[in-house]
Amino acid sequence: MDKFVIKGGKALHGSVAISGAKNSALPVMAAALLTTEKVSVHNIPKVRDLITMSKLLAFMGAKVSIAELPASDYEIEATTVSDAVAPYELVKTMRASILTLGPLMARVGVARVSLPGGCAIGARPVDLHLTALEKMGAEIITSHGYIEARVPNNGRLKGAHIVFEKITVTGTENILMAATLAKGETILENCAREPEVTDLVAMLRKMGAQIEGDGTATLRIRGVEKLYGTDHTVIPDRIEAGTFLVAGAITNGDLTVTNCAPEHLGAVIAKMQETGVRFDEIDKTTLRVRGAKKLVSSDMTTEEYPGFATDMQAQYMALATQAEGTSVITETIFENRFLHASEMVRMGANISIDGRRAVVRGPAQLSGTTVQASDLRASAGLVLAGLVASGETIIDRVYHIDRGYEGIVEKLRGVGANIERVHGTGS
Ligand code: UD1
Known about the structure:
Strand content: 25-35%
Number of helices: 14
Largest sheet: 5 strands, mixed
Distance between the termini: 5 Å
Shape: elongated
Bound molecules: uridine-diphosphate-N-acetylglucosamine
């Protein structure tokens, strides 16, 4: 398995370009299943999860044309869906495979999708996806580890009034896609308002879907008979951008982050400003971040958008280790998302965990050692810690980070970090 080796202590300077949003590209690609026509998607990040999604769509019978992998432009043509199955082998490497369930039910009225199961950060059930589809007329059983869903009598899903018990991002996306081809009107309440949901709405609308309420907690979808091919460019990745903002700040550097969407980073910028980090919005797609001689602590609670993203919690924790004072970090979205904390403690951080709260006392002089990445964003937090640690930090199991960060080693090296990937053999 590959490892990253980081020699910390270098301030980052220069300019780094942000890739397309992984969490936008995934539902946008799944939405191609909703039409027989060709869908072209641009600004796809060159990361493993998108390759997995293209394999999944190809497995189902879609023609996925890519010049070479990894690519940022995909053409998907699902003229027929020959096999409405998301097999365990693909789902186990990418939970977001569940995003094919809604489109399959809408398009062919039948789907067999492996249950995603839990992951390092929590149980992560998909019950809300399933009860919503049932309200739309689907019959669903789970058996032998698979969700077996179908619309009775080879019929169409029907519009329904669904109030999500809890805000779910992929749940909102799945049911939104299902509703576009359902018979009648669907009202979805307590929806996720993440920019990635809004991006999906924009794409579906270009395909002919009738949707109102994007950006709000209530989506109204009037089902149509047919959707059409389209061309779509996914939004910039706000989590990758946020990670680089922390990289600039934690190393007391001066970074210009380009191709990003500052309007999606409001909570992250506001919180980091409280710690003393300086920002300039150069233009609508460019942010400059500068560190501070002395960072100060600030408590942070993760929330659904527009709150502070759980996907930025590990990165913020790395920053908090360098801030003077006590930062209380409260994780409200996932029940077990502090696995990076014990690795940061091994690097010399002062962090104690009490249930969903982490108490970080800083500043701590971190020192490099070998640490294990446990999930995608935890890995990013450890990379950031490694950038300020003295000596050498070796990050193991970086396949997690390869799922979601395009060329992170090259991008960090480009702004002065001393980081390299060491190709390993076996486990
Ligand atoms: C998405 C993002 C992920 C991010 C998360 C929260 C994608 C591909 N992934 O994941 O990066 O960390 O949003 O912002 O977009 N829940 C249930 N039942 C359900 C569905 C969810 O109880 O049926 C719970 C989850 O366990 C979790 C919370 O709701 O506690 C939010 O999860 P959800 O928004 O669904 O996360 P994902 O869509 O899986």
